[in-house]
Model the fold of this input.
Amino acid sequence: MRVFRSLILGITVLVAACSEDRAAREAEIEAALPGVYAGTFPCQNCPGIEVTVWMRPDRRFFIRREYLADADSPASTVYNLGRWTLLAGGEAVELRGAGPVRSFDRRDNDTLLMQTGSEVEHRLTRQRQSPAFTQKIALSGMMSMQGDRASFAECYTGFRTSVAKNGDFASFGRQYRNAAKPGEAAFVEFEGRFLWSGDGSLRAVTIDDFRTIKDGRRC
Done:
């Protein structure tokens, strides 16, 4: 009986140690993963797709896909945003948000390989420079207004921030007063930009082109 108990105790200690090692390893990978990654993906109907992914330490991401022009089609750019999660003990990362779910194998600290059914490699490589994401993109979420101040909660990233009073803020204000009570959250769609502080934290969002308020809809 004593031998059996000693064996069980030894296995328990070993499992606990392995779990701690795995958690420490995943924490190390999560700390090293954030940055800007870029590469050119193959495209059936265009010369290629230049892809850039911003991976933030707060587990949010942005993706820019630039479809290169050819003789039949002009260049075009598509943006997506959302949250990223480590999978498979840190050997893969999953991106969920606006658009399809994307999964990448983490080849090393500087390389992500997108999981696809294609035999052609879809590789992203860490960039030496990591500028903040400042592009104008389509945004949707819950926005409320109290007096002359407004706040915004983005649907896919969960970002919550104040709204700058420049740009097309007045258009939002007019529609909000006709559609909602003061302080009531309303679903909105607009094109805008995130404004960042020097430490990378979100400072505000600015409305460049306000589109609409949709009654009864939520994130």
Remarks:
- Helices lie at 2-32, 169-179.
